[in-house]
From TrEMBL, chain A:
Origin superkingdom: Bacteria
Subcellular location: Cell membrane
SUPFAM superfamilies linked: P-loop containing nucleoside triphosphate hydrolases
Function description: Part of the ABC transporter FtsEX involved in cellular division.
Cell cycle as UniProt keyword: yes
Entry's Gene Ontology molecular function annotations: ATP binding; ATP hydrolysis activity; transmembrane transporter activity
Family indicated by similarity: Belongs to the ABC transporter superfamily.
Protein's name according to its UniProt entry: Cell division ATP-binding protein FtsE
UniProt xrefs under Gene3D superfamilies: P-loop containing nucleotide triphosphate hydrolases
TrEMBL record, chain B:
InterPro entries named among the record's database cross-references: ABC3_permease_C (IPR003838), FtsX (IPR004513), FtsX_ECD (IPR040690)
Subcellular location: Cell membrane
GO BP annotations, alphabetical order: cell division
Name this polypeptide is given: Cell division protein FtsX
Annotated Pfam families: FtsX (PF02687), FtsX_ECD (PF18075)
Gene Ontology cellular-component annotations: plasma membrane
Keyword Transport attributed: no
Membrane topology label: Multi-pass membrane protein
Domain ABC3 transporter permease C-terminal positions: 181-301
Stretches assigned to the FtsX extracellular domain: 60-148
Transmembrane feature ranges: 21-48, 178-205, 226-253, 273-296
Length: 226, 302
């Protein structure tokens, strides 16, 4: 379970990215976080992976207080969270296969495991035939699927996706969303930050709406309302 | 498991060196300069200590007696010196012996031999060679002889040797301190250069670092390769310097042997090559490690 307990993040005295946000996310949930640009969606995700520390409040991932972990303990928690971004963040000089293997290596996995798992996860995202393509040889949607495979390969409990379809055309957008729901059905919590109304309405899952840093709506089968 | 991680880190640091090849080369060369200074100082003190020890072993006091001095008088002086506690040994070389030794030394030189024969009297002086227990005692013995002011004594040649030794010691001491200052100054430059090399390597690898953090790589897994490549710079420099010294000493050694017959520089270097390499490796790793440690602390946030 993820628990944001009265969390505030203040970058400068005049602007607060998050104000006193309290949210509970249960295992295997699919949660969309919506809000206009700059509302604080990304900040929420960054706080969860401890990329940022909250100014006030506490953040828990199951038994761990993420917001209070030392640098030594952080990697253990980060391995339980897979992250996906709008700009994919793939390594240009590595093939799709190598990009995924790189993440497994960094997480300290065995060479044998890597050999077994990478083809499997490439199959899951439907890119078995493009394993040895470099990012510049892939379409935007394919790149994002490699990124999802990379986030998923270390078997995280949670996947955070920050505007994963922001750079994609409608067809690719739907492929990515379908993939995320598939991963969610396999038992992984998914937190999707987006401002795509169509997606949110189609998903008809839990929606958390943030406006100017404040949580203004939290509905179990929500739609995109601003 | 740990082995796999270490292997991966070694691979990463090696790739980082290759990726930043020119900068790595420049860094290694600057470090080579520092290590050469250190190596040069090391060798210099070995050579200097050999020379000084040799000179100190050789210093004795030679007392020269005027030609045609009665042997009796000389023996009396010898006896009185032998009574001193500071004296270890007194050797007597008579005028005849001195001449024989002289002839022996110049037996291939017909000109010198014939000119000696031309002379009526033996021009060489009888000597007493006095060895002391310690070099410090020599001053006392010389003072004693001077006080006695024997009329048959022509000259006492202790003071000249001492002056040479003193001068040599002070020259060596100042070379060493100037060298040390230069080593420190160069080491500072080397650390700066290596620091920048690592900083640039971190910058080049920022995307990889970001992803490693994201997927939960441990901080030593991320930082290790950069620390390692810093140390690798130093190791390459140490090996390069040692090989350079090997070559240079091989060429220079015969010339040194000509000046200092008791010094087999190349032989000495060969026999202590491992220690030499070890000292340079330690210095190189320290230099490279320090600079990459500083760079990592400043620029690699985990």
């Amino acid at each position: 379970m993820i628990f944001f307990d009265k969390v505030s993040k203040i970058y400068s005295p005049t602007s607060a990215a998050l104000k006193n946000v309290t949210v509970r996310i249960l295992p295997k949930e699919f949660v969309s976080v919506v809000g206009s640009s700059g509302a604080g969606k990304s900040t929420l995700l960054k706080l969860l992976i401890a990329e940022e520390r909250p100014t006030e409040g506490r953040i828990f991932l199951d038994g761990d207080e993420v917001s209070a972990l030392s640098y030594r303990e952080l990697p253990r928690v980060r391995r339980r969270i897979g992250s996906i971004f709008q700009d994919f963040k793939l390594l240009r000089d590595k093939t799709a296969y190598e990009n995924i293997a790189f993440a497994m290596e960094a997480a300290g996995r065995d060479p044998k495991e890597i050999e077994e798992d990478v083809p499997q996860v490439l199959d899951l995202v439907g890119l078995s035939d493009k394993a040895y393509h470099f990012p510049h040889e892939l379409s935007g949607g394919e790149k994002q699927r490699v990124a999802i495979a990379r986030a998923f390969v270390n078997q995280p409990d949670v996947i955070t996706a920050d505007e994963p379809t922001g750079n994609l055309d409608p067809v690719n957008t739907w492929e990515i969303i379908e993939l995320l729901t598939k991963i969610n059905e396999l038992g992984t919590t998914v937190i999707l930050a987006t401002h795509n109304k169509e997606i949110v309405d189609w998903l008809s899952r839990r929606v958390i709406t943030i406006d100017k840093g404040e949580l203004i709506r939290d509905e179990q089968k929500g739609t995109y309302i601003l | 498991m740990l082995g796999t991680q270490i292997k991966r880190m070694c691979k990463t640091s090696w790739l980082s060196l290759i990726r930043n090849g020119w900068l790595a080369t420049a860094t290694v060369l600057v470090m080579t300069l520092v290590l050469s200074m250190i190596g040069g100082l090391l060798l210099l003190s070995v050579v200097a200590n050999t020379i000084l020890a040799d000179l100190k072993g050789k210093i004795d006091i030679s007392v020269y007696f005027f030609p045609a001095t009665e042997e009796q008088g000389i023996m009396a002086v010898k006896k009185s010196i032998e009574g001193l506690r500071e004296v270890r040994e007194v050797g007597y070389v008579s005028q005849v012996q001195a001449l024989d030794e002289f002839r022996e030394r110049h037996k291939d030189d017909a000109v010198i031999l014939s000119s000696i024969d031309e002379l009526d009297a033996n021009p060489l002086e009888a000597t007493l060679n006095i060895r002391a227990n310690t070099p410090e005692d020599l001053a006392f013995i010389a003072g004693y002889l001077k006080d006695k002011n024997y009329p048959i004594v022509d000259k006492i040649n202790y003071f000249e040797n001492q002056r040479v030794i003193d001068r040599l010691s002070s020259v060596l001491a100042s070379i060493k301190s100037v060298g040390l200052v230069m080593v420190l100054a160069l080491a500072f430059v080397a650390i700066l250069v290596a620091f920048n090399a690592i900083r640039l390597a971190i910058f080049t690898a920022r995307e990889e670092i970001g992803i490693m953090r994201l997927v939960g790589a441990s901080s030593w897994y991320i930082r290790g390769p950069f620390l390692l490549s810093g140390m690798l710079h130093g190791m390459f420099a140490a090996v390069l310097t040692s090989l350079m010294f090997y070559g240079v000493i091989w060429i220079v050694s015969p010339k040194v042997a000509f000046l200092l017959p008791q010094m087999d520089l190349f032989g000495y270097f060969q026999s202590s090559f491992i220690q030499f390499l070890g000292v340079l490796l330690a210095a190189g790793v320290l230099l490279g490690g320090t600079s990459s440690f500083i760079a990592i602390r400043r620029y690699l946030k985990v």
